[in-house]
Amino acid sequence: MIDDKLHIPIQKDIGEYEQKLFGDMSIRTCVCLAGGFATAVLVALASWLWLAIDPSDMTFPIMLATLPFWLAGFWKPHGMPFERFLPLVARHHMAKRHYEFTPSHRCGTDMPLAPEPKKLTRKERKRTYRKGAELYEPAEEA
Fold first, then answer.
1. Where in the sequence does UniProt note compositional bias of the Basic residues kind (predicted)?
2. From residue 7, how far is each of 3, 4, 10, 23 by CA, in Å?
3. Residue 109 main-chain phi, psi, to 5 deg
4. How, if at all, do strands 25-26 and 20-22 pair?
5. Cα–Cα distance between 79 and 123 in angstroms, integer?
6. How does residue 108 score in pLDDT terms, banded at 50, 70 and 90?
7. Of the candidates 140, 115, 136, which has an alpha carbon nearest to the alpha carbon of residue 126?
8. What is the pTM of this model?
9. Nearest CA to 70 among 37, 98, 93, 94?
């Protein structure tokens, strides 16, 4: 008897809820779908009336004209609606990307970043070739 009841999933996070208008499509999706159909009809009429080309020969240009509406309605890049994603991408591509870095330890002087290494004498070079040279510390001798 318990299994005969209707089960309805409950949305856990109310922030993720989108109001559905028709079937599983939100209001935004329905508006973009209507815009895509309207664009297809307008391009087909323009090709038939002004260009005297049969709309069946213009299927690819008609599809290209409706593509922005289909993308805006159904594509969710990075889980965001298209109207939130588009300004972020535009701001990213219009932003200044070149930043000049000046190290703070140089303080505008012409000092080299690292001092030149000390030239080793013959005796010091010979010590580095011996077994256990990695344990050699010149600071201990001084």
1. 120-130
2. 9, 9, 9, 18
3. -85, 170
4. antiparallel
5. 67
6. low
7. 136
8. 0.48
9. 37
